[in-house]
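Bench log, entry 3. Co-assembly request; chain sequences pasted below exactly as received.
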Amino acid sequence: MSIESGDIQAIILRGYPRLRAARFYLLTIKDASAARDWLRGVAGRVVPFEQKAQIEAVHLAFTHSGLSALGLPQQTLDSFSREFREGMTAPHRRRSLGDHGINSPQGWQWGGGASAHRVDLLLMLYAKDEAQLSTLEHALLLSRLSEQGLERVGTLESEALPNSKEHFGFRDGVSQPAIRELSEPCETDDARQVRIGEFVLGYKNEYGEYPHSPTLPPESAGYSASTSLQDRLSSHPIQSEQLDFGRNGSYLVFRQIEQNVAAFWRYINRAADTVHHPLADVDEVLKRHWLAAKMVGRWMDGAPLVHCPYQPPSDEDPAKTTLGRANDFSYHKKDPHGYLCPLGAHIRRTHPRDALEPGPGTGRSWDVNRRHRIMRRGRAYGKPLVGDFDLDALLKAEDDGESRGLHFLCFNANIARQFEFIQQSWVNNKKFAELYNDADPLIGDHDPREEGGDGQFTIQQSPVRQRVTGLGTLGAGHFTRVVGGAYFFMPGIHALQVLVNM
Amino acid sequence: MVRQTDIALLCPILPNRIEEVRALLLGLRAEMDAGNSVLFDRLPENHFVRWVIIEETGVSGGPELSREAVFAPQLLFSSNVDGLAEDYFYGLLTVDFPFIVKLYSLCAGFPVPSSLSSLSSLSSLSSLSSLSSPSSPSSPSSPSSLSSPSLSSPSSPSSLQSEPTLAMKQAIVRYWLHHRVPSAAYYVGAVGLTRARIKREQRLVESLQGVLDDMQRSGQLQQRSALEIRAHLQAFVRATPEFWWALQSESRATWQETLLFIGKGVAVVAVVLGALCLFWLPLLLIGLLWLCLLRYHEMRDGEAEIDDWRGHHDHIARIAVEEDHILQNPMVSVTAIKPGLFRQLTLRGVFAVIHFAAEYLFNRGHLGGINSIHFARWMIIDKGRKLLFLSNYDGSWERYLGDFVDRAADGLTAVWSNTRGFPATRWLIKQGARHEQKFKDYARASQLSTQVWYTAYRRLSVSNVLNNAAIREGLRGRLSHDEVTRWLRRF
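Structure output for the full assembly:
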């Protein structure tokens, strides 16, 4: 099946690296009729995948309550996925996502129980620079939201950090799934190319099946536009008597993750005194960089430990040169026991490549890996603690009280099998890779209230492991903290037209 | 080798008493959650225990459970115990006789005088609180009830708080044995490891890890060779009387047991091969006939279509609310076996194969490639009309079911394709569970709530249990350098 590139919102398949300015508006619908009028205008500016946005881009996504407020029929509302319907903060979901303690939604700035306003829709604005972004905001009448029947819950700024860094100082976004249908056939990378149905509804997924997709009855009361429903939407791939409202749409997971950069490097400073670098006479700064890299799985410049286990590559080293090389590795053959990249390192859990059962090192292992990928579209926010991410300065830095972190955004067709699975079964799972008490050292849930919840990180090596502890008992020193979040649905452009004409 | 016995009791609940049963079980659960009940901690031989009310779920769009003839609610008790069922039953009655009587007098045919049923108005918690404080005065012995020869003789309610008679206990054990349901197939993740051994090996390994931590802190790990590190750990165990048991072999099986095990396996294979050789023609014909019938049935069978998504999601939410409180999770699934002799025979044949495979092939901590199952079993209940599946697994439901699909789709399709509403299947093992979302929807719809669930080692995964045992085994004997290297990777 060909990709309907005129109907897919482009952000799902493109990260806009050149549109360095971005701002996200969280809005509540107060007056549906006025909001629909305004949304009709905005929807006309939403960028489809077939266009290459060079200057600016607009995208729209909705929570379940937002779709309900805009008047989508109950049957359609019920046919969305359970995760999306229940929302990110359902009690059992908090357990699996690790949203308790300091991550509890009660303390969230938006999307949680305590926030005053519900979030109905997300307006995502991208532009080549701040000036262009202001122009775009002006054109969208964002200064007069209340006249559009909307109320602003929050405006989330973003910050383009140099060299694709995240705030701890590591290069981020190195490994993104390549979409099979949009890639050149290439023998070697076949195992890594993921089918588009893992990210966009209406296409076959990695099981060769169509993802569950919300249905719209062909005779929907309330819909009023000159174009008929049938002309806008195709029939549902499974329930053919229904229209496919989800086609070319995607589920968007949004989590605002605050990063405590000083706490992270303070921990590294302290823990480094308890471990030993495998090479003799290593200076203290390299040793700290090495310990942090063990936890992440990459050096700060993005070079993977599987390529360079003892020190970051020098500028001439080929491992450093291209993004492709930084993503061009697998675990099983070179590092089955985690001697190079620890079994519990952040990148080895969130993307285990060929390390998983069944058949580590084989295509069967990759098959399983491809069923748990997400398309990340996050943006950092807040000024960096140390402008140039100089390691010496980071190690000495005190917390400046500023808030900074990551607007984690990702797209997936099945929240339960993709985002939630990664978060629960890999990131927060202390038994990952047959370990005992190791959650993700960077972002995992080391709940100190739990028995044995001290939080450890094991560094496999020959002849026997080292480990660092205390990841859970740092008090307020969790390196990351969730401060907002929600599940959104980003409809295809035709479905968006239907929605704003309901 | 101690065998982990699978116990399942299925007792019909008296008409209109189901809410009392539920209240008693939820009361016990609340006590257990609050850490006040030590009922199962007191029984040193049980691994996982649960009480589940099995009733019609009435999930619309589920695998047609609701369309079945009315199925009287049943109380399921299930446990995995070291040793014999009878011994365990007597232990259970010794630890909390009043609660057991209170609960089971709500079940049909329970051999307790009807006059005692007035006791059900007593708070279930009183008996439990007496457990948590064994010295409390609420457990005096009453000579009158001890000497009471007949169960049907009228007894005063207070006799429940006193020592039960042996005859009473025997009657209850007989009742339970009568209601015991055999497993059609039974899988054990850590074969032959008793609960006591699992717990003491965990203490051992934690201490050994502590020794390694000390070596790490003092810089010794960097300087020592693999053999020296092992010798250091061995010396620690030798110097710690608490762990002397670890230096002795706790062999998995005696040679007689091994011989019997192998003999049985060889006999089964020989009988099967012999039958194939002797009667190859009739068997071939039967096989072909079976294949034709299979395809006929498969083409005729429908699969469940969920039309009420909201009802389906609400049902899942009720199940999910009980999940992910700790590392391990319970699963209870009831499905309706497709009617007719063909499916009955096919299902029983599949179970015979799985049961044999679980004992002879999957006895190293994985079931068809899934390494997160502590115990699992299938039972055919309700006069052959329903299939009951119980398991205790590590990690999330999504991972467990994902493993089913990604690693063991053939085997589980062979089982569940004989039940109603299962995703369309070809040749018994093809497709079926590979329809990932339909299969997961089917599995979710078949699940029931677990009212009481107990685990004896809540912080250990199957992998941890087996790794601990291997660490302990590796403390003894002479190992080559390679073996020591591999052994040290286990830490």
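Chain B touches chain A through 47 residues (CB under 8 Å). Strands of chain B lie at 4-12, 46-54, 74-82, 185-188, 328-336, 373-381, 386-394, 425-426, 430-431, 452-455.
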